[in-house]
Each structure stands twice: as C-alpha cells, then as structure tokens.
From TrEMBL:
This is Uncharacterized protein. InterPro entries: RNaseH_sf (IPR036397). Gene3D superfamilies: Ribonuclease H-like superfamily/Ribonuclease H. One of its GO terms (molecular function) is nucleic acid binding.
Amino acid sequence: MWTSENPHFFIESPQYPQKVGVWAAISQHRVIGPIFFYGNINAARYRDEILSVFLNQLDDEELVITHKINDINNSASVLENVANAVRRRARLCLQEGGSHFQHLL
C-alpha cells in the first residue's frame, strides 16, 4: 500500500509551554528592571540572574547620586538655596505648631 505522506516525517513540539518570568523592583521613585528569565528558577539562578543584576543597577544609582551630591557640594548657590529652604520650612513648621504646613509652601 502506497501513501502520499512520509511515515518518517514528524514535527517536534514542546510538551509544556515555554515559561517566561519577569522581575522588577518598584518604588515610589523608579523602577529597576525588568529582568527577564526563562524556565524554572532556583536559588543559584535567582542570585546570578536577578539579584546580581539588581545590585549592579543599584551600584550604578549610587554612583549617579554620589556625583550629584558632589555637584551640589561644589556649588555655593545651590547650598545657599537649600539652607534658605530649610530655614523657611522650619519657620513655617514652628508657626503652625508642628502641624501640616505644606499648603503654605
């Protein structure tokens, strides 16, 4: 008996759908990530593929913050403006008896 289909031909397909994980750190100021990972994750993969990437990004942020602080420290006008703003806020706080004063700013 003859057939038009090849009996040795087959199509491979995964038994389970591919898993994709997404991790991100979210704060009120920014988002770090997203960091994508595929398949199952264990403690070693979490440490190597997620935590180390996250900590490296934090290190980058620390450098940026340090440079910005150095810029401020090297600028007398910025320091003077900050000192005046702190004094103003302290006076308003005392004037309001320690209660909310944001509406006065």
